[in-house]
């Protein structure tokens, strides 16, 4: 997150509300993704990744984003800043009633899991995603 944006988010008021106001499309995207994760809804990219790597001991959902879209850039900024990522994880975990962990992966795709993933767990997802493209 650039300095000007970070100042607007964190300097005054409620940072989570500031994120929602400054990044409304990203907020809607994360809301929809959280609901889809809990409901177990796959999208085409997610289904192909899961088919490729097989069963995992954790739940995850991955969506592929066009890296030229502003939404993709906003999500990347929000999840790349540890403070906003933790705020968003905490908020959406409370909303859906279970732990959610957000990440960006492969060409600015969005990865959501039910716990933090290790390198050994995420590397097969990354490799499958690269192969799909």
- The tally of structural domains comes to 1
Mean pLDDT: 92
- The secondary-structure element order is HHHHEHHEEH
Shape, principal axes of CA atoms: globular
Distance between the termini: 28 Å
Q: Provide the low-confidence segments as ranges.
A: none
Helicity level:
55-70%
SS summary, helix count: 7
Helix vs. strand class: mainly alpha
| Sheet having the most strands | 3 strands, antiparallel
Radius of gyration: 15 Å
Give the strand order, joined by hyphens, for the main sheet: 1-3-2
User: Which range does the strand content fall in?
Assistant: 5-15%
How many β-strands, per DSSP? 3
Question: In words, what does this structure look like?
Answer:
By secondary structure, the chain is mainly alpha-helical. The protein has one domain. Helix content is 62%, strand content 11%. α4 crosses α7. The longest helix has 16 residues. The mean pLDDT is 92.
How would you sum up this structure in a few lines?
The protein has 7 helices and 3 strands; from the N terminus they run ααααβααββα. It has helices at residues 3-10, 15-22, 24-39, 44-53, 70-80, 82-96, 119-132; strands spanning 60-63, 101-105, 109-113.
């Amino acid at each position: 997150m650039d300095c000007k944006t970070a100042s607007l988010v964190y300097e005054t008021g409620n940072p989570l509300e500031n994120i929602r106001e400054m990044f409304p499309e990203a907020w809607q995207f994360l809301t929809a993704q959280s609901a889809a994760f809990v409901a177990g809804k796959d999208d085409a990219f997610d289904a192909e990744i899961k088919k490729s790597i097989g069963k995992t001991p954790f739940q995850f959902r991955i969506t592929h984003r066009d890296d030229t879209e502003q939404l993709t850039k906003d999500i990347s900024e929000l999840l790349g800043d540890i403070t906003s990522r933790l705020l968003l994880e905490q908020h959406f975990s409370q909303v859906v009633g279970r732990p959610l962990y957000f990440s960006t992966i492969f060409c600015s795709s969005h990865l959501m899991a039910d716990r933090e993933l290790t390198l050994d767990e995420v590397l097969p997802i990354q490799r499958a995603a690269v192969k799909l493209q």
